[in-house]
UniProtKB/TrEMBL annotation:
InterPro entries: Kinesin_motor_dom_sf, Myosin_head_motor_dom-like, MYSc_Myo5, P-loop_NTPase, SH3_Myosin
CDD domains attached to this UniProt entry: MYSc_Myo5
Ranges for region Actin-binding: 656-678
Protein's recorded name: Uncharacterized protein
Organism annotation: Lepraria finkii
Superkingdom, taxonomy of origin: Eukaryota
Gene3D superfamilies given in the database record: 1.10.10.820, 1.20.5.4820, 1.20.58.530, Kinesin motor domain (3.40.850.10), Myosin VI head, motor domain, U50 subdomain (1.20.120.720)
Binding, ATP: 168-175
Domain (Myosin motor): residue spans on this chain: 74-781
Keywords: Actin-binding, ATP-binding, Motor protein, Myosin, Nucleotide-binding
Myosin N-terminal SH3-like domain: residues covered: 6-61
Family: Belongs to the TRAFAC class myosin-kinesin ATPase superfamily. Myosin family.
């Protein structure tokens, strides 16, 4: 909404360290059509902006700094409640809440979870699950559990499958969040049937629930590793379906995994580690196992020592090993099988130590090389054959077989490819095994619905981006598209339902970028084409890309100005330049056929079982790949190279298409995890870092979509309740619609913006353009200031009278602290909760019971406030505030203070009223007023989002 930028207007200025810094218009000079604005920045600096009067009223004028919200709105626990919905305002809200130790914030349907990097036990105490069970999202503070409960309730109501998408960058908190969500479902107790849980203990779990939770430590041991960004980084994506029967009891689960980072097995960057399980094994194996498997300290294994970081601070790998074993037992992997797994892992460690020596042009690997002998013995394969096919390759043509020697570097690649293949086969075997136990045919038949939790890597862009980042960002493009469509659809549906005058608008769809990647002549297809050529190379691949997409053929592709080996994709979040180096090899992901033959002839029955599981997975992938939507052109098979082996890119594409298919058939809920600082420090907030993630996870894009329409909407009742003081009391009427209309007309008549395009009247709600609410808030604050001045002049007697009005006629109730309030005030019990909540509920408003902390400005000593008392006043039910403020302690007692409309009612208990002979000081008055405003806002948006 256009603004005058008058003196005193607060606006955001860009800042390289903080992201944005607050400023205020100090002077405004208008000369003819020209306007000169002088801003004073919070850091003391000045900034002048020159513009024209006409430009001042242009909503899209990028030269003008984004406006700040009224202070009281700044820490709103739903971003869509911000009147000025701009990038800095969003950042400010999350920052302020984080500084108040509130890590969760809603952005409409999305929950933003900002990693505290510290234990916040109070958020996850066992009883907290029950606080959220059976409650509407709007009735409690933002929380993961609220989202989980919403998914559960939607599943129950619509008998429809649900998905919770948890995304964010590495270390942002996805896995921790996903685990809490799973725990929520496993420990949730129906509020209607308390004590129903096993053994009558709340939080007790059934065997199946315990098994589902036990999959976490197992998957983490085999799929997580220490990286520079996260000590426990998941190196794969995961979708777990928690299956419910018709009584909504958990009866099983099914896991799907995506893109395990295989290269980590053979290479770890500095300060990083291989998969946890190896370090656990080395630390935790018994002496006998150590002997049997030839285990040595970590430094002696090349696959474990490259990162130079064998331990993780605060972790005990031996203890973790015991936990992994315990969890394996819980999910049904026998002790014997566990030993076979660990023996296979030990064999891989020996394989990594196999020394291949270089000759001038070739390489040499004697079959007697000690590590090779050990590895092959444990794998049950022939060392001679293994050695031979590690240093040689054969090319089979129609006429003959041509043998050639490999260089040392090539031979090492072959050795490593075998190790990677076996490890990923073990991982697949584990997943298959978990699914075989938790999603049996019987369970699948009995399951009526599921809630899927997707824990998937968020958008990534580093200094050097490779094939993995390309796949990850492709996945995020798909998820972002689904998210945009969802948000946009919901938005438009509501406009339709409310029958407001609305022309459907388009949003920037990222389909062209997805096409660039996955279409039949897209990047992945060209990568597959190059991968199946015997002499295919990364350079040729990039040349093909440039040829096909550069020269403005695609808006989403750029040829970098420097370097021939890279290409840039313009993703929805940011342009990312990918280094093609290694694309072909990673995409091929092949083990030479001869090695496959050697492995197939293994005498190790467990290796045979593992390879079988892997081939089942591969066959499934290949089938999905060939069934993938993109129709292959003659001569090209998507996802399947010439020799019919599926490529990694093709497999990923097909599994992604399948995932999107599943997700699209469910109702989706979104959690965006944010990593607030790079150094993993507790409660440290780095603005620019958070901003870039908000952009990458689509929060800012959603805000943009909202702003194109009517981002704020209130019911008529809420609106009248909040702004009744803007019209004379004669206009206060029970015909709420008319009253709301009168308020709007009066308000806009007073402002400079008279246009009625600032709002729309729907059937049950009023829809506001961005900025309109801040405008109304300003009017309201001015009005309340006038009231407060009046009250200050009134005597204590009048305040007491106000209180006695409450006693005699006004019904009221408190939620949690009712007994306490009633005791102080000697209220007869008949005014209790049950009698009073009903009419309040009828009005559609939600009742809050929890304590919330509110930004204490301008009094820094204010602590917690608890909105908990509701007053009935004629036709209007109003929520009032009971608050505790350390400011009041100074006045002799922990005061409960109430605000009624424009007047302040002090001290509910009579003794306290007497003690409050003094008038509230200026700062306190200001504070009380602000609290009231904030409380109203909370109630209002909650009501809106719950309806
Ligand atoms: N809600 C939380 N409370 C306290 N600490 C948390 C919370 N969420 C995350 N953390 C901390 O952040 C670390 C990283 O979290 P997590 O492993 O869930 O990140 P991630 O997003 O899954 O990362 P990756 O993609 O690398 O797997 C955790 O080990 C924990 O220390």
């Amino acid at each position: 909404m256009a603004h005058n930028y008058d003196v005193g207007t607060r606006a955001w200025q860009p800042d390289p360290t903080e992201g944005w810094v607050a400023s205020e218009v100090e002077s405004k000079n208008v000369q003819g059509d020209k306007v000169k604005l002088l801003f004073r920045l919070a850091n003391g600096e000045e900034k002048t902006i020159e513009t024209t009067v006409a430009a001042l009223h242009d909503d899209n004028n990028a030269a003008l700094p984004p406006l700040m919200n009224p202070a009281i709105l700044e820490a709103s626990d739903d971003l869509t409640n911000l009147s000025h919905l701009n990038e800095p305002a969003v950042l400010q809200a999350i920052r302020l809440r984080y500084s108040q130790k509130e890590i969760y914030t809603y952005s409409g349907i999305v929950l933003i979870a900002t990693n505290p990097f510290a234990r916040v036990d109070s958020l996850y105490v066992p009883g907290m699950v029950q606080v959220y069970a059976g409650k509407q999202r709007s009735s409690q503070a933002p929380h993961l559990f609220a989202i989980a409960e919403e998914a559960f309730a939607d599943m129950l109501r619509d008998n429809k499958n649900q998905t919770i998408v948890v995304s964010g960058e590495s270390g942002a908190g996805k896995t921790v969040s996903a685990k809490y969500i799973m725990r929520y479902f496993s420990t949730r107790e129906s509020p209607d049937q308390p004590g129903n849980r096993a053994k009558g203990i709340a939080d007790a779990m059934s065997e199946t629930e315990e098994q589902i939770l036990a999959t976490n430590p197992v998957m983490e041991a085999f799929g997580n590793a220490k990286t520079t960004r996260n000590d426990n980084s998941s190196r794969f994506g995961k979708y777990i379906e928690i299956m419910f029967d018709k009584k909504t009891e958990i009866i099983g689960a099914r896991i799907r995994t995506y893109l395990l980072e295989r290269s980590r097995l053979v290479f770890q960057p500095l300060k990083e580690r291989n998969y946890h399980v190896f370090y656990q094994l080395v630390a935790g194996a018994t002496e006998a196992e150590r002997q049997e498997w030839g285990l040595l300290p970590v430094v002696h294994f090349d696959y474990l020592n490259q990162g130079g970081s064998p331990v993780i601070e605060g972790w005990d790998d031996k203890v973790e090993f015991d936990a992994t074993r315990q969890s394996l037992t819980t999910i049904g992997v026998s002790q014997g099988k566990q030993s076979q797994i660990f023996a296979l892992l030990s064999a891989l460690l020996h394989l990594g130590n196999v020394k291949i020596t270089a000759t001038r042009t070739d390489s040499v690997l004697p079959p007697t090389e000690p590590s090779l002998v050990k590895a092959c013995q444990m794998l049950g394969v022939d060392a001679g054959e293994f050695a031979k096919w590690t240093v040689k390759k054969q090319l089979i043509t129609r006429e003959e077989r041509i043998m050639s020697n490999l260089t040392q570097q090539q031979a090492v690649v072959v050795r490593d490819s075998v190790a990677k293949f076996i490890y990923s086969a073990v991982f697949d075997w584990l997943v298959e095994n978990i699914n075989a136990g938790l999603a049996t045919e019987e369970v699948s038949n009995r399951a009526t619905t599921f809630i899927g939790v997707l824990d998937i890597y968020g958008f990534e862009h580093f200094i050097k981006n490779s094939f993995e980042q390309f796949c990850i960002n492709y996945a995020n493009e798909k998820l972002q598209q689904e998210f945009n469509q969802h948000v946009f659809k919901l938005e438009q549906e509501e406009y339709l339902r409310e029958e407001i005058d609305w022309t459907f608008i388009d949003f920037s769809d990222n389909q062209p970028c997805i096409d660039l990647i996955e279409a039949k002549l897209g990047v992945l297809a060209l990568l597959d084409e190059e991968s199946r050529l015997p002499m295919g190379s990364d350079e040729q691949f990039v040349t093909k890309l440039h040829h096909n997409f550069a020269n403005d053929k695609s808006k989403y592709y750029k040829k970098p100005r420097f370097g021939k080996s890279s290409f840039t994709v313009c993703h929805y979040a940011i342009d990312v330049t990918y280094e093609s180096d290694g694309f072909i090899e990673k995409n091929r992901d092949t083990v030479p056929d001869e090695h496959m033959e050697v492995l197939r002839e293994s005498s190790n029955p467990f290796l045979a079982e593992v390879l079988e599981a892997a081939s089942v997975v591969r066959d499934k992938d290949a089938l999905t790949a060939s069934n993938a939507k993109a129709v292959p052109t003659p001569g090209r098979r998507m996802g399947v190279a010439a020799n019919r082996k599926p490529t990694l890119g093709g497999i990923f594409k097909s599994s992604l298409i399948e995932l999107m298919h599943t997700i699209n058939s469910t109702d989706v809920h979104y959690i965006r995890c944010i990593k607030p600082n790079e150094s993993k420090e507790s409660w440290k907030f780095e603005g620019p870092m958070v901003l870039s993630q908000l952009r990458a996870c689509g929060v800012l894009e959603t805000v943009r979509i909202s702003c194109a329409g009517y981002p704020t909407r209130w019911t008529y009742e809420e609106f009248a309740l909040r702004y009744y003081m803007l019209v004379p009391s004669q206009s206060w009427t029970s015909a709420i619609r008319e009253m709301a209309n009168a308020i709007l007309k009066k308000a806009l008549g007073q402002g400079t913006n008279r246009g009625l395009d600032k709002y729309q009247l729907g059937l049950t709600k009023i829809f506001f353009r961005a900025g309109m609410l801040a405008f109304l808030e300003n009017l309201r604050t001015t009005r309340l200031n006038e009231c407060a001045v009046m009250i200050q002049k009134e005597s204590t007697v009048q305040i007491l009278q106000e209180k006695s009005t409450l006693r005699q006629g006004t019904r009221y109730c408190s939620c949690k602290r009712w007994p306490e309030v009633s005791k102080h005030d000697n209220m007869p019990k008949k005014y209790g909760k049950s009698e009073l909540q009903q009419p309040y509920r009828k009005s559609g408003a939600a009742i809050r019971t929890r304590s919330v902390s509110i930004r204490s400005e301008p009094i820094s000593s204010c602590s917690k406030v608890s909105p908990k008392v509701f007053f009935a006043d004629g036709n209007l039910w109003r929520q009032e505030l009971a608050m505790q403020s350390s400011q009041y302690r100074g006045h002799g007692g922990r005061g409960d203070n109430y605000v009624r409309g424009g007047s302040i009612v002090k001290r509910l208990s009579s003794s306290r009223v007497c003690g409050e002979a003094r008038q509230p000081d200026e700062a306190t008055r200001h504070y009380v007023k602000r609290l009231e405003i904030s409380s109203r806002f909370r109630t209002s948006w909650r009501t809106r989002s719950s309806s």
